[in-house]
Write the structure tokens for this entry.
Amino acid sequence: MKQTLLLSVLLFGSALAGGAGAQSVASQIPATSVNMPQPNTGQPSAQSTKTASPLPYNVPSRLPSSGTDNLQKSVAALQNTLTELQALQLQTKQAHWNVSGTLFYTLHELLQDHYEGISKYADDTAERMLSVGASSDGRAITIVASSRLPEIPGGFIDDAQVIQFFIYQYETVGQRIFQRIGDVEKADPTTANQLQEVEAGIEKYQWQMRAFLQNTPTDPNSGSDINNNTPVPLRGK
Ligand SMILES: [Fe+2]
């Protein structure tokens, strides 16, 4: 009986010691190495939505030129870009499947092309985060909570509606990435260069949607021919 009691005390004591040890290790993990955008970026983050990755800690081989503030700026720029690219991955596929109307096949093929390009940009962006020492958060909950992009309508979607939707979606994402390039280009030109490549791709996709509604000397291309005889409303047209 005495032996059992002694064993219980020993086991309880070692469990307590193990718990305290785990806590002290956790407190040593620097908060600056998580994928946490700076508050002053104005961007919602995985952290602000309580969706932090379970293992947001990594040892970088080379930090952006100096200091944790710069690291955080790079990570914020990359994480927010990743989240938006993943939203676009889902939306281009949704439209690829459900686009309907005269331009069905053209848009079906074009959207597949965009999906593949965006998927590569998303992968490059996520892996750049690992390169600078942070985990990347590609979870569905994070996309929903943080992308700040309008959702594409469900069901069959008209060709004119698809064109209008992606003109604005690509415009929004392109502008956001452009701003982030400015945030990081001085301290971390490598990340800035990579974001420039992504932005150029998104701008190209925006043109490829915009061109369907481009005025020419012989045809206003208002979109009325694919939109039930009504011009497709666009800002500035
Ligand atoms: Fe397909």
Q: What stands out?
A: The longest helix spans residues 68-98. The beta strands are 99-100, 157-158. The mean pLDDT is 80.
